[in-house]
Specification:
The chain is mainly alpha-helical. It has 22 helices and no strands. Helix 1 packs across helix 10 (about 200-210). It is globular and about 65 Å long.
């Protein structure tokens, strides 16, 4: 029988003081009241993921339109189409790399807010484009913003959440990204491609406005010695009538034990490299399932098949199914557990939202900013290789060849989940990190 995530209770493991549980009829209401400000801060942050999902699939309706445009300066060749589709992932890789610096220098919240600058500039370039290079630069800038938010938002959400809702809230970045993609598909049924870029500006400015009123991560503030500000942030998040001192002390004790920045020599310790390796491999294998090239070229893929509905309608249906699946994952993740969903569900319910959540949960605090950026860098470099090569492979060997490869990777993912992925349901970040520090092999079984 698998051992529990943590062993006997002790001061190193207790993060929240024990309280008598509320009556069953009041439990949901109590949870909502206790976490309503966390929900608000999460919503403000994950608007960045909405923009990310919107920008990622922008090319799905735009490539077919530009392949048949009457403007010779914007008409795309097959090679240009592959660059237009894939250059977003290069920008995202650069954004992930920059997050290794920004996450720990500016903090999680300010890094998310900073992403609005390249995002707004990128949409403006594509909306007013009259040369191909403007389209490429716009895609690169929106990709940079997406890579930065992909590394910062999961960490911010996990650090402000309580263990009881962290699973559900950890799925919201993927949920909002899918909702952003669905919005693009839906608007693509009505709007011309330039107005699709204009519409992308709206969520960026709303995100900036809302985040201006949200607190930074208490864990980040404590790691910078800003104790009073951290206590105020935690009190605001948990509510004025909640006693946060026990949680505050536990977070501060954990940070004081790890007050210095991690060195390269320390990365050889199992409690450091093991969670980083798991997170990196999950991000790598997630991209190898082919989700990015499929979404980027979704309308073109449907156009090359014998489907009955118009490709635009098919793309919108796929977006709606993905949104419904991620919503189910968000509602069941804290009940069924992360590992169960990885085994029994498809991408949108499993490897889509859960890999982002686990990345933010298992990475050690001292390396969380650097390691999350590294995970995003690896993820999007892999996505670029797949997205750039997808159209040439399809033209040379047919659509079945890449999909056979993606199916094989899905089988590999099952084996990886079974032998390496931990179950973190219901544990605080301090408990997860304490457990990795014990070095128990049963944790990975």
């Amino acid at each position: 029988m698998q051992e529990p995530l943590l062993g006997a209770e002790g001061p190193g493991y207790d993060t929240f003081s024990e309280r008598p549980p509320p009556a069953p009829g009041d439990r949901a209401w109590v949870r909502i009241q206790h976490n309503k400000r966390v929900f608000l801060a999460t919503f403000a942050a994950v608007l960045g993921n909405f923009s990310f999902g919107y920008a990622l699939v922008y090319t799905s309706p735009v490539i077919p339109a530009l392949e048949h445009t009457s403007d010779p300066d914007l008409r795309l060749t097959k090679d240009q189409a592959s660059w237009f589709g894939s250059v977003f992932t290069l920008g995202a890789a650069a954004g992930g790399f920059s997050a290794m610096l920004f996450n720990d220098l500016l903090g999680r919240k300010l890094s998310i807010m900073f992403s609005a600058v390249p995002s707004a500039a990128g949409y403006a370039l594509m909306a007013g484009a009259h040369r191909f290079w403007m389209l490429l630069l716009g895609r690169t800038l929106t990709g940079f913003a997406g890579g930065l938010t992909a590394a910062c938002i999961p960490v911010y959400v996990s650090e402000i959440s309580t263990p009881r809702v962290r699973g559900a809230l950890g799925a919201t970045p993927q949920l909002m990204a899918v909702f952003g993609s669905l919005s693009l598909y839906a608007l693509g049924l009505r709007l011309p491609w330039r107005w699709l870029a204009v519409a992308g500006e709206g969520p960026v400015f709303i995100m900036i406005l809302l985040l201006s009123f949200m607190p930074n991560s208490p864990r980040f503030l404590l790691s910078r010695g800003r104790n009073e500000e951290a206590l105020k942030a935690l009190t605001w998040l948990r509510g004025a009538h909640t006693d946060v001192h026990w949680e505050f002390e536990q977070i501060r004790d954990n940070i004081q034990r790890q007050s210095s920045r991690i060195s390269w020599a320390e990365t050889r310790d199992p409690h450091v490299y093991r969670p980083i390796a798991i997170a990196l491999l999950m991000r790598f294998l997630q991209q190898l399932t082919g989700i990015t090239p499929i979404l980027v070229y979704l309308q073109s893929i449907f156009a090359s098949t014998a489907v009955l509905l118009p490709p635009k309608d098919d793309a919108a249906i796929v977006g709606a199914v993905r949104l419904f699946s991620v919503l189910i994952a968000a509602l069941t993740m804290d009940l069924a557990g992360r590992k169960v969903l990885l085994f029994i569900s498809g991408y949108a319910m499993g490897w889509g939202p859960i890999t982002w959540l686990l990345m933010s949960e298992i990475l050690p605090l001292r390396a969380r900013g650097m390691a999350s950026g590294l995970c995003v860098l690896v993820s999007w470099l892999t996505a670029f290789a797949l997205t750039k090569s997808f159209l040439p492979v399809v033209h040379a060997f047919g659509l079945q060849m890449p999909f056979f490869f993606f199916a094989t990777i899905c089988l590999v993912n099952l084996l990886f989940t079974g032998c390496c992925v931990p179950e973190t349901k219901g544990r605080s970040l301090e408990q997860i990190e304490s457990f990795f520090r014990t070095g128990r092999r049963s944790f990975l079984r």
